[in-house]
Amino acid sequence: MATKASAGARDYTVKPLFAEPYFVTSIAGAITAEQVAFIQSLKMNRNQVNHISDDLYIFRHPELASIAKAVDGALQTFATEVMGIAQRLEVTQSWALMNPPGVGMHGHTHSNSLVSGSLYYAPLPDPPGNMIFERHNTYRQLELAVDNERTNIYNAPRNAIVPKEGDLVLFSSSLQHYVEPNQTKQDRHSIAFNSFVRGKIGSFRDVSELEV
Ligand SMILES: [Fe+2]
Predict the structure, then answer these.
(1) Ligand 1 centre and the CA of 164: distance in Å?
(2) pLDDT tens digit string along 52-78?
(3) How does residue 129 score in pLDDT terms, banded at 50, 70 and 90?
(4) 28 by DSSP, 3-state: which?
(5) Which of 52, 56, 141, 174 could cross-link to 47 by cystine, CB 3.0-4.6 Å?
(6) In the chain, where are the structural domains located?
(7) DSSP assignment of 36-61, as one string?
């Protein structure tokens, strides 16, 4: 008796169990030309290949107060509306970055931080150098390539964000990410920062309470 070739399932559904968000808002209205000049006058150090400000708490400068306030507002929106938590998110370290022509940033995550952010405070080169997020941040013994035409939100190994001037991007600090090399002759400027929760976590009665 002949056996039928496997035809695969015809009726099925695929639904998301969980999803990884990133958040974008424009804070262009909170950034002045004087502030752009101020940030670009900060002392920069070479950081492997890109350049990083010597000052690693730049949002504490009174000159950048309107930017720090806009970032704080976006973090509270992210905490309340996206994460659904009662605690505040407060910026910890904040630093300026500059990628000269040809330079990107290798893959990394941000330790001791919950939510990290990138701020594209100045005009960007064209192409702007995308920020690429990776699904995995650990060694994988088995890497199964996904067909290009079948790549979707469930199987994509990475996804790109195209930065725009004025954009503030928030994402989980544990997400592995890198920046594409700057293919232009102009410098690529950005700010990065980390944040942590402030408030009461856990339950007094369950003896899991922690005030941070
Ligand atoms: Fe980063």
Answers:
(1) 17
(2) 999 999 999 999 999 999 999 999 999
(3) very high
(4) helix
(5) 52
(6) 16-131+163-211
(7) HHHHHTS-EEEETTEEEES-SBGGGS
pLDDT surpassing 90 at residue 1 = no
Give me the pLDDT at residue 201, please. 96
Class in CATH terms, 16-131+163-211? mainly beta
Taking 3-state DSSP, the helix, strand and coil percentages for the chain, each rounded to the nearest 5, stand at 20, 30, 50
Provide the token pair at 90: 């407060």
**pLDDT tens-digit map of 138-197:** 889 999 999 999 999 999 999 999 999 999 999 999 999 999 999 999 999 999 999 999
Distance between CA atoms of residues 79 and 85, nearest Å: 6
Residue 113 to residue 54: CA distance in whole angstroms = 20
117 C-alpha to center of ligand 1: Å?
8
Residue 11 Cα to ligand 1 midpoint, Å, equals 42
CB-CB contact of 134 with 188 (8 Å): no
Largest Cα–Cα distance in the chain?
Answer: 83
